[in-house]
Amino acid sequence: MIERVSAVQQSEAYLLEYIAQESTQVGCKLPTEQQLCKTLGVGRGTVREAVRLLQAKGYVEIRPGRGAFVAQKEEPKKEEISGWFQVNEANIKDINDVRFAIEPFAVMRAVENCTPRDLMQLHAIQARSIVAAEQKDAPILALCDEQFHTYIFECAKNPLLLDINKRVVAQLAVFRSKTFTIPDNVQNFIPAHAAVLEAFEKRDPELGKFMMERHLKTVAADLEASKNISKSLDACGQHARMGT
């Protein structure tokens, strides 16, 4: 595990250097997975994780079916992150509506079909989430959150649900990267995932459904809080410019 994390970090560092080059402009396409694997001497999984981390940090935009593109050459400032929640509020609410429709059902099926190996994998993801939360590592938290929810869909063993979730994941990637820069949001999701895991431990589909619904309600509340933080920051900025 240590070697793989190191390989991901090295791949991420290489890509950051690539993005920082003067010849690399915003909108440029990154080398393909195959090219990066050959250049770095690593597997596709390592390259994909490195790219997703850069996406979570705001450097990269992933366009389904087209590849990864440079979104910006510098990490976004706090003001840019906070303003993003206001601009994208309607889109995020639409995504959350879809999540409310499919994730409680998916977790019920996942609890019913979960194997001991599946449960170990979910616990492993949760353990990585806790470490990332302690280190305040927003990109890793975003990745762990995505892995946790995606693995639940895999445990549900319903190809159609899994396909729908892939579409949702693509839409959620930026939201996840932004939301975990806010400390309260980090504190909320760790116990929420633990509660969902408890349903798996007890083999209780109805409990899983209830805990997932409660978790998604918290996500919606976090969105509202993030939007309010954004407004407060905007107001502070206006007062500062006015000298008040």
From TrEMBL:
Signal peptide: none
Keyword vocabulary terms for this entry: DNA-binding, Transcription, Transcription regulation
GO terms of molecular function: DNA binding; DNA-binding transcription factor activity
Recorded superkingdom: Bacteria
Protein's recorded name: FCD domain protein
Domain called HTH gntR-type: residue spans: 5-73
CDD domains according to UniProt: WHTH_GntR (cd07377)
Record-linked InterPro entries: GntR_C, TF_FadR/GntR_C, Tscrpt_reg_HTH_GntR, WH-like_DNA-bd_sf, WH_DNA-bd_sf
Keyword DNA-binding assigned: yes
